[in-house]
Specification:
With 878 residues, the chain is α+β, with helices and mostly antiparallel strands. Helix 3 (101-115) crosses helix 4 (132-142) and helix 7 (246-259) runs antiparallel to helix 10. The radius of gyration is 34 Å and the shape is globular. The relative contact order is 0.05.
Length: 878
């Protein structure tokens, strides 16, 4: 057996299949692109679904990858066992209707026994009990003895979802020896003991399962294999578990250094070190791929991982921020294959540090509160933590429910999850992205019976052309002709009409014959490259076999081209200003505007937006020639071309160069010179998902129209202000100052009218447990007035607590003020006002001596103010 480390194993695997004519794929992002069925990529085949179902095509129809994956289904088991983890890499080779079982099995055996030199006498295989074809290949062609081939049932050796592609699988096992086994003399793969370690799963996707549960043979079956890189390294390095693999063990060594504790010194220390080493690896790759902490979806997964790691750091004595120090060890271990970790370390560490610091501010208070509660419950022999307490820990101290449950379980307690989730639902604090039952395999299938070859597209060079009608469709059924008034689909041998794709809309225009006039409303294409002209016959009729003239709407195409070319310039400007971590996440361009989605971890400042806009306009003004060429991907890489995944694995790629500014893979239509874009204006910038931003912009004539509208608006404002257009800013500023002065006068009058009743309010002083307090509702006070009134009452009170509520212009306001002597006893205005506001569906907080909050339900104000007395009695004010 060869001596190879994890990184060397990855390269050996990729090299092996690349030599066998597979496309060598880079790992996809952990964030699924265009797949709402998945929260995070959890398997090697997950990003390749479109290729398996045929909606996308890849040169050679075979691929190999080492895919980053995250699985959190067993997150609570991580650390407690030596086999569970959330982050791993999945090695896989794939065939999209190309080779099948014979090649997949032979290559898997060759890689393991010849390339890695594993002992074939220590290897077993399993097959699906009805898969005689795979059984015979293993026995007769590979030469595995029958006694080491195990037939297993559907539960173990058949891969399927509710609907879609599925099929039998065959697994390869390594016999680790009797010491890992059980007492069963007939122990073999399928046993629950640890003796037989599954290293590779070969899935033979040969069926399509329908909604009725029927299996239909696929015309072109697929191969989908998966082998855990860490598990393979475990076998090659001869260690007991993934945490002993050298690359991961190096990360644990850093944890030992920071904690001054030794791995394997105790079960609890081992558990914490395994959690930290696993979670920090996952966190580093998630942040590198654009995920940012949040209270929903994949951002919530990231937040959970960070906070679990921080908590386990505290358990082994690590004080202060430490995650980025572990992150440095992750970069050292992985930067050769994942250089983005090193390249983007500043951004990655900033996001991790911010989240760690935010949690560190509250973790000690939260832990203290939870442990106090557990001690009180334990003394009363109660084993259940109520949902309201779990929710308060989440809301106030940032404890995810699973963290509260984990700590509680360590002490033998359970948490009322139902009550917790009911509170979450009511408050709408967190919403999780749901998974579709079908696993994302249901596809919108084109139901046209297309019998035409791929359409020849001539629209890069001309907007007009002649062709012959090959097929016509009416109501999705093939017909021989379309008549006036009919709306249908027309397929021609060649076309100048661009079909929807690459973020660019399909062309519209006109088709004519000697006796007909046909409007083209849109153009799309199917997976085989056949262009579908969506048409309405305005006059006459058109028939199959007839010669036609096609003409694209030149104004629409021209403006769309300007917008498309501008997205390339915008992409470059974004990377220049924000950093090279910016990657395109989607785009849309039509004649009216452009929309560009990109990876970035925070909102863009006004100054940076202005700089980005200015840079794009500089590129336009620079009159950069736009050159388009077709070449191999190797040549494109030499030019530094960037592009989306689907462009990268074709025999020939199309490269669009804009001077020395931008070089991208792109199949869209573009201007001939950047000066044709004329002008570029950003309309908006916003976040559309965690770690994904969106810019909308306009170009050319649309900018002129926009500026004209703005000029008209400013002119109207000037007229309303009775000033000249050049004096609008000065005049509006002076009006604002006048209004501020009047507001202060009004506030002074209002305060004087209310403070005249201060003595009346002081007559309402209450006292409980030695604490004097005022709890009053006084409506129609704005925040400044209620704040001043609170201070006045507190000063006159001498020693005590003042809580006021006011309904002002539809807004519900609360304040709490505490005298200094009571602060020293532990009374806290921030905690008090927060709990009061929550009674009305609101929230808030602040300093121990003074704090404010906002409420939602005015009907609950009086009850909320009465709650102050109960808070003092319960001691929650501290």
């Amino acid at each position: 057996m060869r001596s190879l480390g994890l990184n060397e194993l990855r390269d050996e695997f990729l090299d092996f299949f690349e030599e066998r004519d597979h496309n060598r794929l880079e790992s996809f992002s952990l964030v699924p692109m265009g797949d709402a069925s998945l929260l995070l990529i959890n398997a090697g085949m997950a990003p390749l679904k479109d290729y398996f179902v045929g909606t996308k095509k890849m040169a050679k129809n075979r691929a190999v990858s080492s895919q980053k994956c995250i699985r959190t289904i067993d997150i609570d088991r991580v650390g407690k066992t030596a086999r569970h983890g959330t982050f791993f890499e999945m090695l896989g080779n794939f065939s999209f209707g190309d080779y099948f079982k014979k090649e997949a099995i032979a290559w898997a055996w060759e890689f393991l026994t010849k390339t890695l030199e594993l002992n074939p006498e220590e290897m077993w295989v399993s097959v699906y009990e009805e898969d005689d074809e795979a059984y015979d290949i293993w026995k007769d062609e590979v030469g595995v003895p029958e006694e080491r081939i195990v037939r297993l049932g559907k539960e173990d050796n058949f891969w399927e979802l509710e609907v879609g592609p599925c099929g039998p699988c065959s697994e390869i096992y390594v016999d680790r020896g009797i010491k890992y086994g059980c007492s069963d003399p007939d122990c073999k793969p399928g046993c629950d003991c640890d003796r037989f370690l599954e290293v590779w799963n070969l899935v033979f996707t040969q069926f399509d399962k329908d909604a009725q549960g029927e299996y239909h043979l696929l015309d072109k079956p697929n191969i989908d294999t998966g082998m855990g890189l860490e598990r393979l390294a475990m076998v090659i390095e001869g260690v007991d578990n993934i945490f002993e693999v050298k690359v991961i063990r190096n990360i644990i060594s850093k944890i030992e250094e920071l904690s001054q504790k030794a791995y394997h010194s105790s079960a609890k220390i081992d558990e914490s070190m395994r959690v930290i080493s696993d979670h920090v690896r996952a966190v580093m790759f998630l942040v590198a791929d654009g995920v940012i902490p949040s209270n929903e979806g994949r951002g919530y997964v990231l937040r959970r991982l960070i906070r679990r790691a921080v908590r386990h750091g505290r358990l082994i004595g690590i004080e202060g921020p430490f995650l980025t120090k572990i992150g440095e060890a992750v970069i050292t271990s992985y930067k050769e294959h994942y250089p983005e970790l090193d390249r983007d370390r500043e951004r990655i560490f900033k996001i991790i540090s911010t989240e760690e610091e935010k949690f560190s501010e509250t973790i000690n208070q939260g832990l203290e509160r939870l442990h106090d509660l557990i001690d009180r419950l334990d003394s009363k022999s109660m084993g259940l933590i109520d949902g309201a307490t779990a929710f308060r820990l989440y809301d106030t101290f940032g404890f995810p429910l699973d963290l509260t449950m984990e700590i509680a379980a360590e002490k033998g307690f359970e948490v009322d999850q139902d009550a917790f989730y009911e509170l979450v639902k009511e408050q709408k604090i967190r919403s999780r992205e749901s998974r579709l039952d079908d696993g994302g395999w249901i596809q919108a299938k084109e139901d046209l019976e297309v019998n035409a070859p791929a359409t020849v597209f001539i629209g890069y060079d001309t907007l007009e052309g002649e062709s012959v009608v090959q097929q016509l469709f009416l109501d999705h059924s093939p017909v021989t002709e379309l008549k006036a008034g009919d709306t249908g689909i027309l397929i021609a041998e060649q076309t100048p009409f661009y079909a929807l794709g690459g973020g660019q809309v399909g062309d519209s225009g006109q088709i004519t014959t000697e006796n007909s006039k046909i409007q083209v409303t849109n153009t799309t294409h199917d997976a085989d490259g056949v262009y579908l002209h969506h048409v309405k016959v305005l006059e006459g009729e058109v028939a199959t076999g007839q010669r036609i003239e096609l003409k694209v709407n030149p104004k629409e195409r021209g403006r769309t081209m300007k917008n498309h070319s501008a997205t390339h310039l915008l992409h470059k400007a974004l990377r220049t200003v924000l950093g090279n971590h910016v990657q395109q996440a989607g785009s849309y361009v039509d004649e009216h505007r452009l929309r560009f989605d990109f990876s970035h971890y925070e909102g863009i400042s006004k100054a940076d937006l202005q700089r980005i806009e200015a840079i794009v306009n500089e590129y336009i003004e620079g009159a950069n020639a736009v050159k388009v060429g077709e070449m191999s991907m190797t040549q494109a890489n030499e030019l530094g071309a960037i592009g989306l995944f689907e462009d990268k694995y074709k025999d020939v790629v199309r490269v669009v160069q804009m001077g020395d500014v931008s070089t991208e893979l792109c199949g869209g239509t573009h201007v001939h010179n950047t000066s044709e874009i004329q002008m570029f204006k950003i309309l908006s910038e916003s976040g559309i998902a965690a770690g994904v931003r969106r810019i909308e912009a306009i170009t050319g004539h649309a900018v002129y129209e926009y500026l004209r509208e703005m000029e008209q608006t400013v002119q109207m404002v000037a007229e309303n202000l009775r000033t000249h257009i050049q004096d609008v800013v000065k005049r509006s500023g002076s009006i604002v100052e006048e209004l501020k002065k009047k507001d202060k006068e009004i506030e002074k009058i209002r305060f004087q009218s209310k403070t005249s009743s201060v003595d009346e309010i002081l007559e309402q002083i209450q006292e409980v447990q030695g604490v004097r307090f005022i709890s009053q509702r006084i409506d129609n006070l704005d925040m400044n007035t209620i704040r001043k009134l609170s201070d006045t009452l507190r000063d006159k009170l001498g020693s005590g607590l003042v809580v006021l509520g006011s309904l002002h212009e539809g807004k519900l306001l609360f304040t709490a003020a505490v005298t200094k002597d009571l602060i020293e006893t532990g009374l806290n205005a921030g905690n008090i006002v927060r709990e009061v506001a929550k009674q009305t569906g609101g929230n808030g907080g602040g300093r121990p001596d003074f704090a404010t909050a906002g409420g939602k339900d005015p009907a609950k104000v009086d009850a909320a103010l009465k709650y102050v007395k109960e808070l003092i009695q319960q001691g929650i004010t501290k």
